[in-house]
Structure formats: C-alpha cells, structure tokens
Amino acid sequence: MNCVLITGASSGIGYQLARDYASAGWQVLACGRNAERLAELACHSPLIQPVCFDHDNPQQVHDALTAHPAPQLVILNAGDCHYLDDPGQLSVAALQPMLHANLFGAVTVLHELLPRLERGSRIGWVSSAVTLLPLPRAELYGTAKAAGEYLARTLAITLATYGLSLSLIRPGFVDTPLTRRNDFAMPTLISVSEASRQIRDGLAAGRAVIDFPRRLHWPMRLLSWLPGGLWRRVALRMIQRAPTVAAGK
C-alpha cells in the first residue's frame, strides 16, 4: 500500500489532502501539533494515522517519524501567515515565527526523512503564489516562502542524483482557516477540495511545479515581467487605494 506523509494536516489544505488520499486507498501519516484535530481527522478513515509533534522540537520530530515506515510521498504543507502593517515593526523577532513555520519546520522533517526515503519517492513542497511578486504587507511571509522556494528548487536538482523527485507547489488563495483571517479581497479564491485535487493531480503527473489557479498565476506572472521601477509604482498605487493588498496561501 502506498503511504503519504502530510505535515500541517490538522486544518486547511493538509486536512483535505489527508482525507482525499485516504479515500483513494493510501495509508496517510497525518502530521501536526494539534492532537485533538488529528484525532478528529483520523475518524474519517482507518487509513489515517495521526502523528503529533511540534516541528520546532527536533527530538519530537525524530521520535514521531522514526516510529513509522518511510512514506513514498511527502507533502510539506505546514505553514503560517502574518502581515507587516508598519515597516517600523520589522525585526528579527517578527521574522522568526514565519521562518520557523514556513521553512525551518520543513527542514527539520526532511532531515529525519531524507536518509530513509527510497529511490522513486517524491516530495511536495508547498510554497505560495506570493513568491511571484513583491507585495505590500507580505514582507515577512513572502521572505519565508521565497527562502523555502529557493531551497526546494535547489533540492529538486541535487535529490535527483539519489533517485528522489521534488515538486514545488504554489497555491493562490485557498479558503482555509488561515485565509479567513485576511482583511482584504482575495481574488480567484478556491475551495480546499479544489486545491487538494490540483495538488494530487500535479504530484501524480510528476510535475516539477504545480501552480494554481491559473487565472491568478498568469496575471501575476505577467506583472512580474514588468521593470522593477514600474512594478513599484503600481504597487504604491495599490497601497494608496487599499492598504490591505497582499497575497498568500
């Protein structure tokens, strides 16, 4: 039986992925720090195994992951998002939580799993459409996601020599408890069911980059081709018209 390990499975995209993979007959290692939510998730299928740990605690990660066989598919989905309303609030202390949630946790999990993954295994690294453009208020979140994306793209090259594949996943706005905290309009918002379908289809097809929805990605990609000075002027007008413009998973 195929086995998938999913981090951030206690809510949002990870929760839906766990249910959908279990429905397709996969053994699911559903990872997160909220034991109650993971237990609720496991009620949906006997194929879902809760794996509770705090990814900021390397010993917890080690103990939890080594208690289970290595999966054939790993989806690094855990993350968080906070916006910077005032540039004067920029600090190492403000950036650290975003780096821990969106980068360091994934690295801690990979540190335990990589030596155990067999050739032919695949890793899905969930980033965000925010990396396509420098967006107002997204300095902290975007920095963490961009750092993770660089690492993922580099690992995709080096891991290939070990027979491992890595797919970069860049969702736009998905209707999750995380995005429901946003106080701005979210264009092309999609459901978690649609996000799960896009991710599962992309991973099954072996796509190196999984971008969705296209109706958000293509405009952002086109805007990213503008000269830097021109985009800054456009973004400045966005701030002046609506101080709450940003994008993320």
Report the CATH C-level class. Alpha Beta
What fraction of residues sit in β-strands?
Answer: 5-15%
SS content category: alpha/beta
**What integer is the average pLDDT?**
93
The first-to-last residue Cα distance is 31 Å
Please give the count of helices: 8
* CATH level-four homologous superfamily name: NAD(P)-binding Rossmann-like Domain
Largest sheet: 7 strands, parallel
Subunit organisation of the chains: single chain
Strand order of the largest sheet: 3-2-1-4-5-6-7
Question: What sort of overall outline do the alpha carbons produce when their principal axes are compared?
Answer: globular
Total strand count, please? 7
Please compute the radius of gyration using only Cα atoms.
Answer: 18 Å
Helical content class: 40-55%
Q: Which regions have little confidence, pLDDT < 50, spanning 5+ residues?
A: 243-248
Can I get a quick summary?
With 249 residues, the chain is of the alpha/beta class. It has helices spanning 12-23, 35-42, 58-65, 92-113, 139-158, 192-204, 214-224, 228-241; strands at 3-6, 27-32, 48-52, 73-76, 122-126, 165-171, 209-212.
